[in-house]
């Protein structure tokens, strides 16, 4: 796309259907047939979806901040007060990221593998793999459900305990003092001891970057790992297309037991992107937009991270890898590399502050690993204000994991008015009140409802897009997108089951 391309500033979203329900990829409700053959549709997953033909990176970033995500060109937003498994948008402040002990072990394991070819003595279970939704116990009865919740709460208590232990700074100081006294008594060189301690402390304060830089300088290493950031349409991307697709099929089959992986589905789900940029978004390189990050080990692609680079955040959309390398805890490793990448980019893009890992689900262990990256916030679905994760989780747990408004006493920002919504009508763009004049009876009621839904859930973003209704257009928007809408919205349901 060159700078003379005038299409780049236009965002067009197509209304698909009223917010609807479907089977849930997390708790599996709505998927099981009852004994009498009818569907179990009790408390199913509930979301609103639109199809984005073109979407400016800023508009998409703003949508993420009111709870939306994308899957290919399909955008969706869980209807939190209706859906069975409330999904809160989670973000990590990369400037204040605190690396945990487990994260350091993951980085060290990779380092030892690359440098010495050494396999980890003790494999770190990849929480991104642990209890994937497909392996979650089927919730058959309320008792089982209660047990599951109890386990969840217990996990959190254990986590809190270990955190408190880590915070036992006073005790640590006391022990340090005692150690110095013992050494003094034995007549040892106390300065040497203190120097060693300082080195140890420093190694504890290491950043992700400090682990990563070593690979670059190392010589005579057993393996070489390179991360290549590529964009659709580039020669590297096209050349590696087949290899990435084969890797995706292997991953889906072995990790998610999914053999329904057509090439068209893969392209619609992980390559197709509605994101467009303005020339100003392309001044700094890499330009804002959608990318694949290929993890190339000794010349072979062993993992791919699908990411969106937006004005304020790097959003991780999906990650797939060769399961033969699961001993390297690839899910966690990639998240750490993406955080480091965001930190690096923020040096030249000061507005870039956050790493988005999608949705956080309190009752889904696979998704709760996201909370291990600190400090993180969860998005309040009513006020669109962020709350520190620990505080928000406490509120969710004390509300029995039901949908929780984090700031119940604060008002919801006022939704934009009908008068600010632009619509495509036949071959023109007009404001919604003008379109209303052309409608009457049931059509008017129906459109008012749809517009209401959009302005309520898309919020201020509705003012920066053109809403497209195929039923209002004589000449269909001339591109191939509408033909693939159905298929991609199907693949989107997969993304919700297996999102990074
Ligand atoms: Zn559910």
A few lines on this structure:
Helices cover 39% and strands 19% of the residues.
Explain what this protein looks like in three dimensions.
The structure is a single chain. The chain has 500 residues and is an alpha+beta fold. It has one domain (6-30, 39-413). Helices cover 39% and strands 19% of the residues. The chain contains 14 helices and 17 strands. The strands form two sheets. Strands 1, 2, 3, 4, 5, 8, 15, 16 and 17 form a nine-stranded mixed β-sheet that branches. An eight-stranded mixed β-sheet has the order 7-9-10-11-12-6-13-14, with helices on both faces. Helix 2 packs parallel to helix 6 (208-217). The longest helix is centred in the N-terminal third of the chain and has 25 residues, at 142-166. It is globular and about 95 Å long. The relative contact order is 0.18. Mean pLDDT is 82; it is low at 130-162 and 474-498. The structure holds zinc ion. The site of zinc ion has 7 residues, from loops.
């Amino acid at each position: 796309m060159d700078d003379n391309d005038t299409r780049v500033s236009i965002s067009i979203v197509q209304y698909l259907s009223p917010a609807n329900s479907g089977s849930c990829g997390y708790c599996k409700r709505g998927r099981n047939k009852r004994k009498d053959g009818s569907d179990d549709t009790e408390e199913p997953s509930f979301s609103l979806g639109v199809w984005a033909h073109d979407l400016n990176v800023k508009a998409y970033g703003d949508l993420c901040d009111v709870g939306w995500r994308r899957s290919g060109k399909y955008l969706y937003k869980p209807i939190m007060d209706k859906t069975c498994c409330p999904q809160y948008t989670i973000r990590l402040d990369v400037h204040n990221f605190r690396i945990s002990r487990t994260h350091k072990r993951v980085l060290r394991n990779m380092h030892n593998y690359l440098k010495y070819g050494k396999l980890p003595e003790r494999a770190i279970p990849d929480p991104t793999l642990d209890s994937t939704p497909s392996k979650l116990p089927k919730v058959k009865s309320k008792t089982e459900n209660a047990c599951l919740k109890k386990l969840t709460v217990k996990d959190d208590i254990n986590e809190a305990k270990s955190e408190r232990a880590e915070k036992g700074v006073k005790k640590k100081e006391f022990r340090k003092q005692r150690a110095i006294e013992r050494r003094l008594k034995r007549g040892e060189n106390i300065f040497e001891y203190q120097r060693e301690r300082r080195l140890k402390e420093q190694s504890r304060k290491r950043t992700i970057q400090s682990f990563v830089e070593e690979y670059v300088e190392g010589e005579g290493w057993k393996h070489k790992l390179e991360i290549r950031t590529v964009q659709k349409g580039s020669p590297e991307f096209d050349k590696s297309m087949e290899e990435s697709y084969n890797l995706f099929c292997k991953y889906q089959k072995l990790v998610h037991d999914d053999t329904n992986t057509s090439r068209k589905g893969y392209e619609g789900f992980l390559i197709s992107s509605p994101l467009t940029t303005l020339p100003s978004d392309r001044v700094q390189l890499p330009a804002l937009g959608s990318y694949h990050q290929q993890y190339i080990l000794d010349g072979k692609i062993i993992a791919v991270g699908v990411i969106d680079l937006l004005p304020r955040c790097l959003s991780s959309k999906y990650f797939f890898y060769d399961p033969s390398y699961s001993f390297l805890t690839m899910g966690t490793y990639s998240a750490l590399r993406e955080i480091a990448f965001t930190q690096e980019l923020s040096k030249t893009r000061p507005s870039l502050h956050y790493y988005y890992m999608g949705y956080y689900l309190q009752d889904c262990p696979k998704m709760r690993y996201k909370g291990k990256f600190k400090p993180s916030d969860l998005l309040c679905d009513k006020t669109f204000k962020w709350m520190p994760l620990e505080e928000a989780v406490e509120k969710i747990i004390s509300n029995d994991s039901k949908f929780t408004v984090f700031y119940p006493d604060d008002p919801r920002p006022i939704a934009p008015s009908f008068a600010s919504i632009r619509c495509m009508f036949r071959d023109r763009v007009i404001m919604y009140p003008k379109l209303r004049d052309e409608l009457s009876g049931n059509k008017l009621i129906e459109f008012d409802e749809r517009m209401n839904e959009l302005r309520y859930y898309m919020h201020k973003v509705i003012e920066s897009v053109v809403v497209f209704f195929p039923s209002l257009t004589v000449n269909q928007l001339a591109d191939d997108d509408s033909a693939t809408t159905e298929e991609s919205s199907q693949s989107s349901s997969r993304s919700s089951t297996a999102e990074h």
